[in-house]
Amino acid sequence: MTPTFSKENTMIRAKKRLAAAALAVAGLLAVAVPTAASAADGDLTFWSGAFTGQTVTYPDAGTGCTTLPFVVHAELNETATGIRVYESTDCTGRALTFPASDIHSFIGFDGRSFEPAG
Questions:
Q1: Which of 3, 65, 110, 115 is least enclosed by beta carbons within 10 angstroms?
Q2: Is 58 in contact with 66 (CB distance < 8 Å)?
Q3: What is the annotated signal peptide range for this record (predicted)?
Q4: Is the separation of the CB atoms in 71 and 81 below 8 Å?
Q5: What pLDDT is stored for residue 42 in this prediction?
Q6: Dihedral over alpha carbons 11, 15, 20, 21 (to 10 degrees)
Q7: Cα dihedral sign for 78, 82, 44, 59?
Q8: What is the DSSP string of 23-63?
Q9: CA 74 to CA 46: how far, in whole Å?
Q10: Interior angle at CA 92, CA 101 and CA 84, nearest 5
Q11: Rg, Å, the chain Cα set
Q12: CATH topology of domain 37-116
């Protein structure tokens, strides 16, 4: 016996699928996008490798230049402040800029200091 589908039943099923997909996307966005409050409460972590090796974590981006304890090649910025990572130890010269709520590796760049990007 072959099932039969009416146009009305097909439309109802399509609407249900669309609603379920919209709910799934909304749920993913709620989990994936940090709120401003959670980003402001986050830490700033650096790694010596591409998210491997030595790590150092700061409770925020600070207010001035911070010399890193070792050369870094990756960052996880869970703060509400963007940062600049410099090749020098005194926040001068060549730098990479990263936004708030960011995760990034930079293997071809030796980071030695950072400051908030303002």
A1: 3
A2: yes
A3: 1-39
A4: no
A5: 87
A6: 100
A7: negative
A8: HHHHHHHHHHS--HHHHHT--EEEESSSS-S-EEEESS--S
A9: 6
A10: 5
A11: 23
A12: Gamma-B Crystallin; domain 1 (2.60.20)
- 104 vs 4: which has the higher pLDDT: 104
Express as a percent the part of the chain with pLDDT over 90: 61
Instruction: Give 95's DSSP letter.
Output: E
Instruction: Give the DSSP H or E segment for 68.
Output: strand 66-72
Q: Where are the domains of the chain?
A: 7-33, 37-116
**Each residue of 54-93: pLDDT tens digit?**
999 999 888 999 999 999 999 999 999 999 999 999 999 9
User: How many whole angstroms from its chain centre is CA 27?
Assistant: 18
**Token representation of residue 72:** 């870094």
